[in-house]
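Re: [ENG-882] Designed sequences occasionally contain unexpected residues at chain ends

Forwarding the minimal case from QA. Structure tokens:
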């Protein structure tokens, strides 16, 4: 049955055409929301719409272009919930091999574009609305080569607290995910990717890595949880305990 907290509410998922974002869009739609997914690539939106429930819509925008982001929310109009899951494929590198230009681009999409999206969306969020951003356990328990990813996670979590104060009574939260099997890891060769997954899974209390649908449930929960703001929900299979 659709959740009464999302029935007929407008949910916009930036980065909602693959991985956790796609799973969140699907689950929100299943709970009665009117969902719009956003990507910079037409092929991604077409592929996503082929799998999402009827009535889901899609928009194209380069989230690193502030003018396009403003125009996007001008087109969308009023909304109830904003979810930001956009991000390029992950690439890990030791400090002595760091590509600083690539790190800046990675940070731009993961952090500054999220901040810009909130800027553009906030005036259009209805009373009782929410923003849910995306962090990860790398900020709390990084490994070698994770310096950029860990820095972004820490910055996002600090941003959540600041925005929850500034935008109150709108709610601002984040989901801190552990290792999840998504296309964000497609930049790694398959053998390396599976070795990474298996090594991490072996150390987790649950003995496996996460699936996008499991993480999506936390985004939908935060949309409907009206007494949560400035919080970061951890869904990590016990990563922080391992």
């Amino acid at each position: 049955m659709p959740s009464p907290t999302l029935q007929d509410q407008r949910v916009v998922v930036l980065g909602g055409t693959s991985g956790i974002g796609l799973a969140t869009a699907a689950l929100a739609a299943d709970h009665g929301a009117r969902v719009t997914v956003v990507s910079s690539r037409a092929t991604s939106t077409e592929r996503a719409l082929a799998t999402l429930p009827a009535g889901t819509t899609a928009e194209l925008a380069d989230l690193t272009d502030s003018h396009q982001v403003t125009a996007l929310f001008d087109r969308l109009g009023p909304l109830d919930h904003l979810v930001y899951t956009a991000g390029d494929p992950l690439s890990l590198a030791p400090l002595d091999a760091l590509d600083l230009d690539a790190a800046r681009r990675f940070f731009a999409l993961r952090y500054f574009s999220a901040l810009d999206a909130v800027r553009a969306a906030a005036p259009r969020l209805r009373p009782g609305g929410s923003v849910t951003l995306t962090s990860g356990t790398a900020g709390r328990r990084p490994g070698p080569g994770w310096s950029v990813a860990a820095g972004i996670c820490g910055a996002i979590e600090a941003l959540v607290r600041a925005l929850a104060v500034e935008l109150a009574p709108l709610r601002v939260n984040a989901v801190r995910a552990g290792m999840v099997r998504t296309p964000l890891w497609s930049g790694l060769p398959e053998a390396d990717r599976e070795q990474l997954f298996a090594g991490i899974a072996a150390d987790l209390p649950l003995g496996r890595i996460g699936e996008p649908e499991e993480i999506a449930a936390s985004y939908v929960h935060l949309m409907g949880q009206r007494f949560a703001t400035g919080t970061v929900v951890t869904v990590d299979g016990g990563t922080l305990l391992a």
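QA comment: On inspection the terminal residues look reasonable. The beta strands are 10-14, 34-39, 57-60, 79-84, 125-136, 171-177, 232-235. Proposing we downgrade this to a documentation issue.
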